[in-house]
Amino acid sequence: MMGRMARTGSGARGVLASLALLVCLTVAACTTDQPTEPSPSTPGSAALRVRTVHVAGSLDADAQAEAEAAVGDVLSGYVVRAFLGDYPREDFVGAFESFTGNLARDGVRDLDVLTANRLGSAETVHATRLDADLSFLVDGSDTVGATAAVRFEFEATVDGEEQPFGLRGRLMLMNDDDTWSVYGYDVKTDSGEAVQAGVTS
């Protein structure tokens, strides 16, 4: 079960019930090895690599590529706002722009895990690895949700010394009228600090 649970309207309950099944799926063999690479804005940073590893339902190649690109855009935006950009910096709350409203409030409470807030005084931060394995849930012809198993690794320059750090775990996403949003997370830092939150009916 997720640690923090935020409420959503009754109109999303059916979708969220279906998405809960996706979170429990066992990741299968890769269905594609063609990554999309939305580029973070920080010079020298690794590009985001996404690949589909499982589809619950039927998804043709074009629809899969479109879903990968849409989810990749959400993940790329999160990475840039949460970890990259110009340093020193303090504006990490913007990382939750693509989170659902209640989940964004949980994200603020977990700011030091979900972002580089604790390293805001660093001289620079760049990404060394940005991998996301995607599992999609398809209902008829609609791609309604996704789980992204992420492994993000970074290096911060603090007082002239390189300091590696990272984030890994799962980000859960839902698709509402072709707008993808993060509705849950279950992640931890390399030091083992873990946080969970999600939307429930």
Write the layout of secondary structure elements.
Blueprint: E1 4-7, H1 13-23, E2 49-56, H2 61-83, H3 101-109, H4 111-114, E3 124-139, E4 142-158, E5 161-176, E6 179-189, E7 194-200
Parallel strand pairs: 1-7, 2-3
Antiparallel strand pairs: 3-4, 4-5, 5-6, 6-7
Spatial arrangement of strands, main beta sheet: 1-7-6-5-4-3-2
Distance between the termini: 14 Å
* Strand portion: 35-45%
Total number of helical segments?
4
Query: What proportion of the residues is helical, as a percent range?
Result: 10-25%
Please give the number of β-strands: 7
Structural class, from helix and strand content?
alpha/beta
Low-confidence stretches: 1-40
Oligomeric state, counting identical vs distinct chains: single chain
Largest sheet: 7 strands, mixed
Question: What integer value in Å does the Rg equal?
Answer: 16 Å
Shape: globular
H/E series, N to C? EHEHHHEEEEE
The overall average pLDDT, rounded, is: 84
Please summarize what this structure is.
The protein has 201 residues and is an alpha/beta fold.
Question: Mind explaining what this structure looks like?
Answer:
With 201 residues, the chain is an alpha/beta fold. The chain is built from four helices and seven strands. The chain has helices spanning 13-23, 61-83, 101-109, 111-114, and strands at residues 4-7, 49-56, 124-139, 142-158, 161-176, 179-189, 194-200. It has a seven-stranded mixed sheet. The longest helix is centred in the middle third of the chain and has 23 residues, at 61-83. The protein is globular, with a radius of gyration of 16 Å. Mean pLDDT is 84; it is low at 1-40.
